Amino acid sequence: MVFFAANRAIAVSQEKCGKRMKAQSPILLSKYRSREPNIAKLLEKVEVSLPSVTYRDKLCAHLDDKIEVEIVHSDGTAHTDGDSIVHIRDDRVVFAGDVLWVDYHPNLEDAHIQGQIRALKTIVRWNPRRIVPGHGPVCGLPELRRFIRYLEELDKNCPEGFERTPRNR
């Protein structure tokens, strides 16, 4: 982030994500540095850079005369309560972030599975030709639908209350 900040890049986040970063990032960086000397050395020049722009529900940006980007907050909590999904409508490309994980089990510690499924179904309605997940290879609708089915089965087979009350809320 320092490279981007030094070059005047604008960091954008959903407002809840920005607040969480402000509260937690310095503490997390300190914890990582204290784990072992090798990690501390790798992180010695790392500085926390917070978002310079936050939004609540949706933000539209024109990157140039040809590219319009829509940044959308999933309704409620999906992977977290501050998820952003980037939709480039004209190119039919979606950057799904951690709402979508391809080819392995997602981190669900702060997730609400039903909210995540709703967010993924929104992406399906956009009918993208390419989707960039938070983790895994670039994919299309078949992989997205497979992940929705995976989460639906996981939710159906988990003990009651498994993720109904995400921690850190």
Structure characteristics:
disordered C terminus; two-stranded parallel ribbon; about 170 residues; globular; Metallo-beta-lactamase, Chain A; alpha/beta
Q: What do you see in this structure?
A:
The protein is an alpha/beta fold and 169 residues long. The protein folds into two domains: 1-56, no CATH class; 57-169, Ribonuclease Z/Hydroxyacylglutathione hydrolase-like (Metallo-beta-lactamase, Chain A). The chain is built from five helices and seven strands. The strands form two sheets. Strands 3-4-5-6-7 form a five-stranded mixed β-sheet, covered by helices on one side. Strands 1-2 form a two-stranded parallel sheet. The longest helix has 21 residues, at 15-35. The model is unreliable at 164-169 (pLDDT under 50).
Structure, briefly:
With 169 residues, the protein is an alpha/beta fold.
Q: Name the assembly state.
A: single chain
* CATH superfamily descriptor of the largest domain: Ribonuclease Z/Hydroxyacylglutathione hydrolase-like
Percentage of β-strand residues: 15-25%
Low-confidence runs of at least 5 consecutive residues: 164-169
Count up the helices: 5
Topology:
Elements: H1 2-6, E1 12-14, H2 15-35, H3 37-42, E2 53-55, E3 58-62, E4 68-73, E5 84-88, E6 93-101, H4 113-126, E7 130-135, H5 141-157
Parallel strand pairs: 1-2, 6-7
Antiparallel strand pairs: 3-4, 4-5, 5-6
